[in-house]
Amino acid sequence: xKLHLTLAALFTALSFAxxxxxxxxxxxxxxxxxxxxxxxxxxxxxxxxxxxxxPADPKKGIIxxxxxxxxKGGTVADFELTFQFRIEKGNSGVQYxxxxxxxxxxxxxxxxxxxxxxxxxxxxxxxxxxxxxGILALRGxxxxxxxxxxxxxxxxxxxxxxxxxxxxxAAIKKEDWNEYRIVAKGNHVQHFINGMQTVDVTDEDAxxxxxxxxxxxxxxxxxxxxxxFKNFKLVxxx
Length: 238
Hints:
The chain has helices at residues 2-17, 165-170; strands spanning 21-22, 33-34, 40-43, 46-51, 53-54, 57-61, 67-71, 79-88, 91-100, 110-118, 127-130, 134-137, 141-146, 155-161, 178-185, 188-193, 196-203, 214-219, 225-236. A hairpin with a 3-residue loop joins strand 11 (127-130) and strand 12 (134-137). The chain has a single domain (2-236), classed as Jelly Rolls (Sandwich), CATH 2.60.120. The protein is 9% helix and 49% strand. It is built from two helices and 19 strands.
């Protein structure tokens, strides 16, 4: 089993070795990105998203639906993406293999895979499908996703573990910079935070598994919050 896993990891590494890195953020402005510019900007070399407080209730954010900053430089299928993030309050994440829906009052609305993270202690590292099938793997889980009997709600089978959820959380620096890595190859996706694997998912729900789509960054409705992203490195498999 260990030899099989080692060979699989080597194959994945070799599949990206010949690919070129693609710049998706110039570190200066939001060229190539589309979203609500009242919520998104670049500060100190980082893409910065904010949820302003609601004047009627400062404990709540002003936005009424999740909204996104969408990369317009193309779509991604098989790829490896690393980036750094920091968050103060609330929830966020990076969408991949996603699609745009009808925009809302506060900007673009996106559906698809999400590499989740938050200021709390439960969801950072999970695989969530925004406006889709919901949670596909909790932190620390290895899962296989199969089509459900109704064709919509999937069967999520736990196939093992990839790490201890509490240990992963303990390694995440609160309100400071952390590194996230997403690896997507065929129907197999993996997430890592600060070098620790958080999920391993094989999506066998062929009718619903996204195979290619957009990258986007999330601002989640909820309390006033700040989220930042920088040092993106996107390598697509050929």
